[in-house]
Amino acid sequence: MSQHDELQTLLQKTSRTFALSIPLLPEPTRREVGTAYLLFRIADTLEDATLWSPEQRVRALLEFRELLASDRRELGEQACARWCASPPVAQDGYLELLTAMPRVLDWYRALDPSAISQIELHAGRSATRMAQFVQRMDGQGGLRLSTMAELSEYCLAVAGIVGQMLTELFLKGRPELEGVAAGLRERALSFGEGLQLVNILKDASSDRAAGRVYLPSEVPLREVLDLAWRDLRRAEEYNQLLRAACNERGLWAFNALNAGLAVACLKLLSARGLDSKLTREQVTSLHARVLHAAERDLPLTGELPA
Q1: What is the rounded distance in angstroms from the CA atom of residue 258 to the CA atom of residue 235?
Q2: Which of 69, 122, 235, 256 is least crowded, fewest Cβ atoms below 10 Å from its Cβ?
Q3: DSSP code of residue 296
Q4: Left, alpha or beta for 144 (phi > 0: left; psi -120 to 50: alpha)?
Q5: How do residues 20-59 score in pLDDT, each as one tens digit?
């Protein structure tokens, strides 16, 4: 199997959304973002390692951070062998990705040096912050956030930093974006936070069953929903800046699909309550609409509520 095919297969087995959106990107950004996403997903797997103790998770996250800074393939192979000998999770897709980690690290090390530096910086920051949250878990791996500030800090650790990294990869080698770079960077954290808040809201019950309570019990749900809407309005501004300044339609389509799916899901959550999820047909329909709008340079209908 070619690197391209294996990368896409791993995306399909670990994220339905990004398996649809990443192929929309132009090269070399597609390869850079696809590889980076898999690395972040490995870190997520180590953080969510329900079959490991919190201490094991922290050690693995910090070791993963060191692997990003190393060019020694054998270190990745050794870590992979140890982690897979005592699997951290039961999900087949995540275990397959963990098994493939040495190859994913090979793909990462073969990228342009400027892309490697951005991925190492941001994935390393994320792994460090994830480890700090894991250190707060109880002996059974439970985590309970108490305030909106803690919720925002968690969203920064697992998604806001991803938004910052993606922005730097979009800006790399595109002088036409210099005029909007400050505006994109200003909105990148909110974009990532909004996507993560939607994930937390739609997965609230399954997270709670696993001992992870991200929604602060003393905070009204409406306050979390309002924050998510504000974030997704910033995401819309991000997309408008990007589309106006760049003639590569795939960049806008990637962001438009990710944000559009979040908006559609948040509308559903606002109307029907926690744990509501889009159907496969709804996801497919929005994907087709984004492709149609990008190919014909049309506006994407379905704006956010005022």
Answers
A1: 10
A2: 69
A3: T
A4: beta
A5: 999 999 999 999 999 999 999 999 999 999 999 999 999 9
Q: Contact at 8 Å (CB) between 23 and 8?
A: yes
With residue 143 as reference, give the H or E element that holds it.
strand 143-144
* Number of C-beta neighbours around residue 178 at 10 A: 10
> For residue 183, what are the contacts with CB-CB under 8 A and spacing of at least 6?
237, 238, 241
Give the Cα separation of 10 and 158 in Å (integer): 19
pLDDT at 260: 93
299 phi/psi in degrees, rounded to 5? -65, 150
Model confidence at 155: pLDDT above 50: yes
pLDDT for residue 302 is more than 80: no
**pLDDT > 60? residue 306:** no
Mean pLDDT over residues 230-243, rounded? 95
Calculate the CA dihedral of residues 70, 132, 213, 207 and round it to 10 degrees.
10
Residue recorded with tokens 């670990």 = 14
Cβ–Cβ contacts within 10 Å for residue 5, how many? 9
What is the pTM for the complete model shown?
Answer: 0.94
Cα within 13 Å of Cα(203), Cβ side: 12
Contacts made by residues 267-276, CB under 8 angstroms, sequence distance 24+: 267/305, 269/198, 269/201, 269/202, 269/225, 270/225, 274/201, 274/202, 274/204, 274/205, 274/221, 275/202, 275/203, 275/204, 275/205, 275/206, 276/202
Per-residue pLDDT band for 300 (boundaries 50, 70, 90) equals: low
For residues 265 and 202, the answer to whether their CB atoms sit within 8 Å is yes
170, 29 contact by CB (below 8 A): yes
Single-letter code of the amino acid located at 37: Y
